[in-house]
Structure formats: structure tokens, C-alpha cells
């Protein structure tokens, strides 16, 4: 038996990219609306008519939502959770009795078997009562033990773990380390084979639910040896195993009730039967889990948007300035319009992506990532606008408002709670790169070796021939399309005409594809370093996806006689607002300060501008930037607690 590594792996930039590339699904076995959109092909047929759930799924989902709403209204005290920074044990016990731990687990394993659509509706409902409770349920089911075991586990693992997760056991997902975030190639936690077991060593950071978890999904590196292919591997680990210590319960600016900590593993014995999938498949399992798991985050943003709209409507009607209600002032009204239109669009994106996930006819890896990226950014903007609308009261805590006799509106808390969404489950910057990689996959498949400096001349010649055939067929199709035909998409031409918005989406998708191609032609192998350009390309695609979803949802509601006229108005308002953002992004593709910014950054890091820092006192405490995480036994008291 070999000893666990004492330091983190040293990897080059290219090696890090190769690890990430190996983890992604290399094939597209199903159609993808968003992938086609980035290629300049507006495949409306993939999302319209809007897919709908089966009647049985609706009945089961609505019945549970009714019970969950009653629980939220009577058993969850969001103000108490915020004040005490902890979810009461009796609330968690009540959720277990309700079956909320098993919303996504099949009935045969003791779960409720809800669809992704109704799972997200449930998360939105719970999250509106307390975001911390929503995060607990989401971390448990979206990325915790149930999802990877359901997708990749053996029958024995499903029988062993899913019933527990459905009713009694809380789970957590452990990937991040103190010095390893979105760069998993440097993962240091090790799982060394020892007979029929593995010995697990390492430290994991920001383990949401880790403080109270009964079961853990842990990603660790198995060293290559005889009979072991090695690589980053996924394990289900019992949280009460000897050698596991929760060394700290972390505290944050928002989501004050979440049970997030630092977990140390010291020679923790894990049976080989608890390994999920083969050795080396851990990152692929993690990424596949996140394809749909990321949809839980937009659910919380939709809930936030709905609440922002409610408070904005009520407050702006009650508050008067200069002789008229606040909402009647144009500067304020613009914010209210943005909140209303964006909430409609976010719900459209969420429901469309979720229903597509339920039907499993499409590959939604890009759609799920776009939903996470877009919702986290727009949700934050809506919360910020709400705080601005509330003025000084928006900056004041709900407890302080109540203490002086006013309605306890936690607007500032919402802003704090939503801020993390732009960071976890893939930061905005990482999501830009992840989506961009998938968006240009078709180009890399045919021309990747042309821009790879390490490719041989023979490989470049083959790539050149393939690229010539592909682009000879593809480029001419970007010149003209349905978006230039005034009569296109007639079924969306009502009292409010959304057909013109869809024609804009079609035209702009082709324009986006042309811009992407030009960028690849211009920068070739350096394209991956142009993160500003790639981010704007992705943001344009996100806006086009949201416009498409909003229009399709509006038509669905109209066909049902369910606020169709109003839905068309909201979709039209959103599309008009989105078009302004899109045109600005196109302008910034080629007119920006990216090169100058890089020059300034070099100067900052070299200390050229350190004089600019004079005249302040740094209130930061002492200590290293990154805590030491060398393997070994814990020297701290175990902060883990079990909720029964």
C-alpha cells in the first residue's frame, strides 16, 4: 500500500484543459436547440409547440405542492433562520416526513418521483419561504448522492442508498478543495486502493450540507497502479466513518442558515462497492450530474423575481413622491417593467429547459448551463433594482423595519442571498468558458487540428480538407433565412406581434454564428485566451435563448386561455429589452478595452500602481491566503451534527 500524496499535483495549463476535455461528453447523440442556435440555425421546431407534462405528473406534482405550501406557511420561519443562522431540526424533520428529501427519487425507492418541472416548482416555493431551506434540499438532491447514484450507480447501490436519501438521510457533494476550484486537474484528495477498500485522505471546502450530512459523494484521485487505471473517481461515503472530521462550519454574507463546512478525511476506509462508476470517471459523473442539477439554481432566481415583483408592485403603489405614486415616475417604472418582463422570461427558460429534461429527447447540457448563467445574473439585477426601489428601506434589515413599526421586507437579505448564485455551481466566468466550448464544438470537430500548434502536418492537412467541406456547406446558409421573410412564424402574430421577435432571433443567430467564425479565423489557436470575446458571444446566445423561451411560453399560455394576452405583452417587453442588450454586446465584440485591460493587469501585478493604494488601513486579519491542507489527522473538534 502506498502513502497518500503530500502535495497537490502540479499540472500545466494544457494538462488542465485536457483533464476538463476528457470529462465532457464528446458526442451529441440528441439534438440541442442551443447548440443549433450558436451555429446560426434557429430550430424552433425543437421547442415549439412547448412540451407539456403528462396529466399524471401534473396531478402528482400539484398534490405535493399543496402540502408543501401548507408546510412552508406554517412551519418555516425564514426570519428565525436568518436571525439564528440555522435551520431548526424540527423543520428538517418535518421535511423528511413530508417526503421532500425524495422529490426526485423514484417511488420504487421510496421517493415521490416528481418531474424536473415540479421539483423546480417545489424548490422555488421552499426557497421563497427560506433560501437556506431551498439550498439544503437542492444540494441534497440536485448534486448530492441521489442524482449520481440514479444516473451511474449499480442496482445494489440504488437499493442501498436511494431509500435512505428519500426519507431519512441528508447528502452532500464534495469536490472543491481549499486550493482547487474550477480546475479539477489539481485535485489532491486521494483514494488509495487497499484490498477491497480505498483509503481516503484529503480536505474538502465549502461542503454544502456537509455539516449535517449522513451520506457524502466525494471526488478523490486514485493513483494509477497494477489493476487500477486511476484518475478522479466518485465514492459514496458514510459521513460517520472513522477519520472524517467537519473542522469548521462556515459563515457567509448570505444564506446564513446553510450547513456548509470544511471536511477532513484521514485514512477513511471506503468499500470498493461504494465507488460510483469506474475509476477515472468522477469528473464525467460530476459534469453529467450538473447538466440537470444546475436547473435548481434558476428555480431560486425565479422565486426571487416573483417576490421582487410583488414587493415592487405593492410598495410603488403605496409610496408617493411629488404628488403621485412612485411607480408613475418613469425612472422607477423602468425598473418595475424590467423586473416583470425578466421574471416572465426566467420562468419561461426554467420551465422549457426542465420539460426538455423530463422528455429526454434533447441534449440540454447547453440549455441547462445557459439557464444557470442567465438566471444568476438577471436574478441579482432584479434584487438590486428592488433595493433601489425601496430606497433607504431597501438597505435596512427586516428586523430593524419591524422594530420601528414598518413592514419587515427583507430586500437587503435577498441581495445577499442571491449573490452566491453568480459563483457556485460554476461561476459566471467559468460558465462562459464552458458554454463557449460546447458552442464551438462543431468547429473544433472539423478544424481543431488546424489551430492546434502541436498537431502534425498530416493532421492539419486532414483537418483542412474536412473544414473545407463543412464550411462550404455551412457559411452560405448564414446569409439568408426565415428572419428576413415578413410572413415567417405567423402563429405568433396576435394583437401583440411576437413573430417579429422570432424573426429577430433567427437573423441574430446567423449574425452570431458569423461573428464566432470571424473570431476563430482571426485568433485561431489564441481564441481560448479571448475570454472577453467568448463571454459576450455566450451572453448574446443566452439572450436569444431567453427570447425564444419567452415567446414559446406566451403562445402556450395563449393556447390554454391562461393570461395569454398579458403573457404576450410581457414576452414582447422582454424581447425589446433583450434586443437592446444584444446590440450593445455585439458592439463590444469589436470595440472594447480587452487589450488595454491586460496591460493594466500586468502593471497591477508588477506593483506599478501600488502607490494608488496609499492612504488606507487594511482591516484584514492575519493568516495565509489559502489554508494548509496537508493530509493527516484532524486537530480540531468535530463540528458534524446529525439531525434525527
Automatic annotation (TrEMBL):
Give the required cofactors. Answer: FAD
Which Pfam families did the record assign?
Acyl-CoA_dh_1, Acyl-CoA_dh_M, Acyl-CoA_dh_N
Where is the Acyl-CoA dehydrogenase/oxidase N-terminal domain positioned along the sequence? 62-167
Entry's family note: Belongs to the acyl-CoA dehydrogenase family.
Keywords tagged on the record = FAD, Flavoprotein, Oxidoreductase
Which reactions are catalysed by this chain? a 2,3-saturated acyl-CoA + A = a 2,3-dehydroacyl-CoA + AH2
Region feature Disordered, mapped onto this chain = 1-25, 622-644
Which residues are in the Acyl-CoA dehydrogenase/oxidase C-terminal domain?
Answer: 280-438
What GO biological process terms are annotated to this protein in UniProt? fatty acid beta-oxidation using acyl-CoA dehydrogenase
Q: Where is the composition biased (Basic and acidic residues)?
A: 11-25, 633-644
- A GO molecular-function descriptor: flavin adenine dinucleotide binding
Q: Which residues form a coiled coil?
A: none
Question: Per the database record, which ranges form the Acyl-CoA oxidase/dehydrogenase middle domain?
Answer: 172-268
Listed under GO cellular component are: cytoplasm
Q: Where is the composition biased (Polar residues)?
A: 1-10
Name by which UniProt lists this protein: Acyl-CoA dehydrogenase
